[in-house]
């Protein structure tokens, strides 16, 4: 029988033959970029595809091949590529000057749109990325509480310098982190008790995104709210990815008000931005009209193209009604994948919620990162590459993000490709998982 190693070698060699121009581009890029790369997550073996154009929910690569884009810029490309409404908002902003060094109407409007949508937000401040939003939220918690310890979760991801995927990242900020296991109610509660009066905050993704799109259990999130209140620490919801789920993110769904919320990805309509916010009382710390206010800097915090794109995206496209509809549409797709895997009796499962999906090699939903088996990890490159060869662009680690322009036929193409994968590899999948 075919081994996993030989199957991966075979699919990679077909990939190399199919993508000569991307291969050459990768080699050229390596002259001035280490490994040809400036964003680690975009690298995969043997080389990534170089993209040249986007069109709605599809991308076209240098070799002229067209893909349904389920990478979706790791959730930031919610609006697809070159949406007309967003394009004209950016053009309008560009026509009036882009680096004005002054307040503009755009940040005022976008702040209003976000505060009207997310229950815990009375006021926000903008920055340039989700990472920056989290750094600001963590630093704010330290200043407000006068405490140093920050509780985060194993396999959590809050940005390139606040990352706990498979251990503590060497590039992490030297904050005093203590780590608990995600969805471990008793373990996390007792760690909060132990750190008690030294704990500044708990930061949590309400769905563990990069860690496998694992839904946070409602009781787990409620416990975090209750325990942080008991010990006088702040609760930070990192909704950089999950804010797209429904009209007001997971906080609206589970009815929990964190002290601080961080946002990013889609809120700038596909352009770079980030935001952190909370109650007016907490955010008053940043009010420059008050003596001794915290000074929050950033040349591009209110850059007009991102702010204008964000205003158009959140007011004219991703209204609360559209967000509710999209959650239903994308959740139906996720469930249809699980129906298909069950009917084919293959140990595969589409984890996550709505438009945030990760395919795991397991018959059950994954509830904790420790449930992800070594076999599951080792099968991922095979799935990734076979789907790419079939015109379905997914993330190397198994994530699929749906975007607003996706239609039934594109979803059905993805289902068909996954079905073909199962037809071809079911015995191999079973053998690898049994090993
Ligand atoms: C949950 C979460 N928080 C923060 C970030 C960091 O955002 P950015 O890449 O914009 O810095 C990400 C990025 O993937 C994320 O998924």
Level of helix content? 40-55%
Largest sheet: 7 strands, mixed
**3D shape:** globular
Average pLDDT, all residues: 97
Strand order of the largest sheet: 4-12-11-10-7-5-6
Compute the separation of the termini in Å: 14 Å
Instruction: Work out the number of β strands.
Output: 16
Structural class: alpha/beta
The set of bound ligands, ions and cofactors reads: pyridoxal-5'-phosphate
Give the SSE string. HHEEEHHEHEEHEEEHEHEEHHHEEHEEH
Identify low-pLDDT runs: none
* SS element count, helices: 13
Radius of gyration from CA coordinates: 22 Å
Task: Describe what this molecule looks like in 3D.
The chain is α/β, with parallel strands linked by helices and 435 residues long. The chain has 13 helices and 16 strands. It has helices at 4-18, 20-29, 84-95, 105-117, 130-145, 185-195, 218-231, 249-254, 280-283, 304-317, 320-343, 374-389, 408-434, and strands spanning 51-55, 58-61, 66-69, 123-127, 149-153, 176-180, 199-204, 207-208, 214-215, 234-238, 260-263, 274-278, 349-353, 356-360, 392-393, 399-401. A seven-stranded mixed β-sheet has the order 4-12-11-10-7-5-6, with helices on both faces. A four-stranded mixed β-sheet has the order 1-2-3-15. It has a three-stranded antiparallel β-sheet with strand order 13-14-16. A hairpin with a 2-residue loop joins strand 1 and strand 2 (58-61). Helix 4 crosses helix 10 and helix 6 runs parallel beside helix 7 (218-231). The protein is globular, with a radius of gyration of 22 Å. Pyridoxal-5'-phosphate is lined by residues 74, 129-131, 134, 157-159, 205, 209-210, 238, 240-241, 264, 274.
